[in-house]
Amino acid sequence: MMQDKQYLMIPGPTPVPPAVFSAMARPIIGHRTEDFAEMYKRIVEKLQVVFQTKNDILVLTNSGTGGMEAAVANTVNPGDKVLALVTGNFGERFAKIARAYQGDVDEVNFSWGESVDLKVVEEKLKNNRYKVVLATQNETSTGVCNDIAGIGALVGKTDALLLVDGVSGVGGLEIKTDEWQVDILVTASQKAMMLPPGLAMVSVSPRAWEVIKESKSPHFYLSLSAAKKSYDKWNTAYTPGVSLFAGLEAGLDMMMAEGMSNVYARHKLLSKAAQAAVKALGLELFAREDSISPLVTAIKSPEGIDGDDIRKILKKEFGVTFAGGQSSLKGKIFRIAHMGFADKMDVIIAISALEMSLVRMGIPLEMGKGVQAAQQVFLGGK
Amino acid sequence: MMQDKQYLMIPGPTPVPPAVFSAMARPIIGHRTEDFAEMYKRIVEKLQVVFQTKNDILVLTNSGTGGMEAAVANTVNPGDKVLALVTGNFGERFAKIARAYQGDVDEVNFSWGESVDLKVVEEKLKNNRYKVVLATQNETSTGVCNDIAGIGALVGKTDALLLVDGVSGVGGLEIKTDEWQVDILVTASQKAMMLPPGLAMVSVSPRAWEVIKESKSPHFYLSLSAAKKSYDKWNTAYTPGVSLFAGLEAGLDMMMAEGMSNVYARHKLLSKAAQAAVKALGLELFAREDSISPLVTAIKSPEGIDGDDIRKILKKEFGVTFAGGQSSLKGKIFRIAHMGFADKMDVIIAISALEMSLVRMGIPLEMGKGVQAAQQVFLGGK
Questions:
Q1: Which end of chain A is more exposed for a tag (fewer CB within 10 A), N or C?
Q2: Which of A213, A236, A257 is at the close of a domain?
Q3: Spatial separation of the C-alpha atoms in residues A215 and A74, rounded to whole Å
Q4: Which chain B residue lies closest to A370 (C-alpha atoms)?
Q5: Contact between B348 and A343 using a beta-carbon 8 Å cutoff
């Protein structure tokens, strides 16, 4: 196995483009400088295009979970009623954070592999007065994406704030923050945004700022009020990851150059090709057809085979890393991410390596069939 | 098409591993320093493993052709008899350089796509007294490699010096400089050595040094005597590309870590897979079976199709760059390099992109068939 020649296909951290690494290698700048302020301002303007929002977008120096905690810690006071819409591991994490801040959490679990059922949300909102609703845009643990537009339309009719974990979605999956009435949207650097881990981006609506003012929970580093005070002067409350900021701007520039609609179309195409390949190989997708995330394809391990054994061969023989199943799904599924810095050839690599690994394990299948199905999708069904 | 996501598959420059770029990004060091001397010494020790020689190996700051010129300019005086064994474009270039230094060049052209016929060499050496014999280890223009061991055994029986252009071969194709009696071996940084272009490495045998002492041709920057004087103090006559030196050491370290026999086996495996794929798709290899280079696969353009049109689609739709045919082969062949920083997945990418491009051009073929043939080679025929 060659050093350095590795194919990382997990839902974050994801591969980083050379242009982003180049930007990160620029000389370190001081954060209390005009240069930093100008860069922060430019970054926010570009993020507002991606988020489709006029809201403030605070860039925090921590990974995604820190961003999720900031959203909760600044809005949920002890005893506050919280509705948590859970479709997998990351939905559970969001609920867990709310409980850590002594929220009175009403956790609704949808079947893993399915998305949030809007009828259930409607019913819940009718019968309860929540202060905060927690939802996950893209649930990478199950390869499912949720209908944030639909959830937002329902929550928007109530007084509750809608907090969305867009950590693995934003940048690859369209989000209309303002139109869909998302009060706090959180994303992070290491997924579809094509950066190393270390930054969280948090947009806050005017309605959310009103609630944040009344925050009683203890917090300091994750204080959005402190962040906002500095943000108004294009600065940060505490030392920001200046190199990651530089990389973030470079990544955003790549996305702007490609065009956001092309970025989303690319992810959908990769997903469609991966799905076609999986079916052609006689394997089963884990997520329900209508809920499948365009950013990650979750596949059921073949009968009697541990998915983690497939993953070992993939890594050892072909340098390809897929993600495994989490919690109760361990060994039962494996997941191929195609988010961020990914294109057609990554799907070809993933599928051809999967074919070879399965054959290596003695599973009868015709190699090349999955690749062919992906190729046909890429050629537009021809 | 995504920025930055491109697959370069030409026979040099080739992709550079991150570890090499990282080494090149280290702070610039002065070249008249102990640090540089120590680095040069270490590099030469590692190059001697790759070259399989005890000879001096001078590292010159110029690309491969400069190294070839240094070999010729320092050994060929006006009127000297030179035997040039030509199997393609780069063999022609070597002969052209010898003529530029007014050598009396006996150029023997073998059919393009075939390797040097040892019987012809034997005959030539019997009937003539040459001062210098020029040969190409790996002729990338036709995807052919020559039997340097066989040529060396014949030339070694005469007084002639054997000068070998190993620019595209060394590092991917085994060479036994001492055992095969190669007097001057030239290679360059940007092929199987996995570096950007800018360095040539030239090994010189004791016998060659005797001849070089008598050199009468004009040269200065390319003077091997000047280089040798500095080399004996682990220095260079003129300013060396210090960052490329640092990268060269990192690349050599990667090769040592993999093990040279594994490096050669990897290249052979990639070549075997590419050949199998080409045949499975009903395409024709350009080089004669027994002469095929393990570093580059030359393929005949299908009847009535211009290879350069295939290459345009490959680049535009899939970000994949193959090399075209040179001189009289323009449009008639195209070439896939799998040298240096290349592994199994690069062949899969090349073949799947080729399949899609041919179908896009209306050529009837079953996509996935070529990929399957490559996969079978990778799995050891299972």
A1: C
A2: A257
A3: 5
A4: B368
A5: no
Closest-approach residue (CA) in chain B for A351: B348
Shortest Cα–Cα distance, A308 to chain B (Å): 20
Q: Which of B301, B299, B310 is nearest to B361 (CA)?
A: B310
> In Å, how far is A162's CA from the nearest CA of chain B?
33
Q: Is B367 found in the same domain as B236?
A: no
- Same domain? A216 vs A83: yes
Residue type, B168: S
The answer to pTM > 0.90 is yes
* Other CB atoms within 10 A of residue B209 CB: 17
Cβ neighbours of B367 in A, within 8 Å: 371-372, 375-376
Measured between alpha carbons, how far is B222 from B211 in angstroms, rounded to an integer? 16
Taking only the tens place, the pLDDT of each residue in B262-300 is 999 999 999 999 999 999 999 999 999 999 999 999 999
| A2 lies in some domain | no
The span from the CA of B90 to the CA of B105, in Å, is: 15
For the range B98-106, what are the long-range contacts, defined as Cβ-Cβ under 8 Å and sequence gap of 24 or more?
A: B98/B72, B98/B132, B98/B134, B101/B72, B101/B73, B101/B76, B101/B77, B101/B217, B102/B76, B102/B77, B102/B78, B102/B217, B103/B72, B103/B76, B103/B78, B103/B79, B103/B132, B104/B79, B104/B80, B106/B81, B106/B82, B106/B130
Q: What CATH number has the domain bearing residue B371?
A: 3.90.1150.10
Residues in chain B closer than 8 A to A4 (CB atoms) = 17-19, 254, 341
What separation in angstroms does the CA of B87 have from each of B40, B95, B104, B112? 34, 11, 19, 6
Within 8 A of A378 by CB-CB distance, chain B residues are 356
**Structural domain includes residue B2:** no
Q: What is the mean pLDDT of residues B88-92?
A: 96
Once rounded to an integer, what is the mean pLDDT over residues B342-361?
A: 97
Residues B296 and B228 in one domain: no
The CB density around residue B379, as the number of other CB atoms within 10 Å, is: 15
Of B257, B281, B313, the domain-final residue: B257
Q: B interface mutation test: which of A1, A5, A341 has the most B CBs within 10 A?
A: A5
B42 within some domain: yes
Same domain for A336 and A201, yes or no, is no
Chain B residues close to A18, C-beta within 8 Å: 4
CA dihedral A152, A156, A162, A168 (to 10 degrees): 20
- Tell me whether strands B320-324 and A184-188 are parallel, antiparallel or unpaired: unpaired
**Given CB atoms, is A367 within the 8 Å cutoff of chain B?**
yes
Inter-chain CB proximity A2 and B366 less than 8 Å: no
Does B289 share its domain with B347? Answer: yes
For residue range A173-232, what is the model confidence (pLDDT) as tens digits?
A: 999 999 999 999 999 999 999 999 999 999 999 999 999 999 999 999 999 999 999 999
Q: What is the DSSP letter of B343?
A: -
- Residue B352: list chain A partners with CB under 8 A: 345, 348, 352, 371, 375
Question: Residue B13: is the preceding peptide bond cis (ω within 30°)?
Answer: yes
Residues A252 and A148 reside in one and the same domain? yes
Residues A38 and A70 in one domain: yes
Regarding whether A280 and A336 lie in a shared domain, the answer is yes
For chain B, the domain total comes to 2
> A346: nearest CA in chain B?
B349
A-B interface: how many C-beta pairs under 8 angstroms? 111
- Residue B122 within a domain: yes
Q: How would you write B217-249 as a 3-class SS string?
A: CCCCCCCHHHHHHHHCCCCCCCCCCHHHHHHHH
| Residue pair A347/A341 in contact by the 8 Å Cβ criterion | no
Domain extent, residue A327, equals: 7-13+259-378
| CATH code: domain of residue A192 | 3.40.640.10
Contact B321, B311 (CB under 8 A): yes
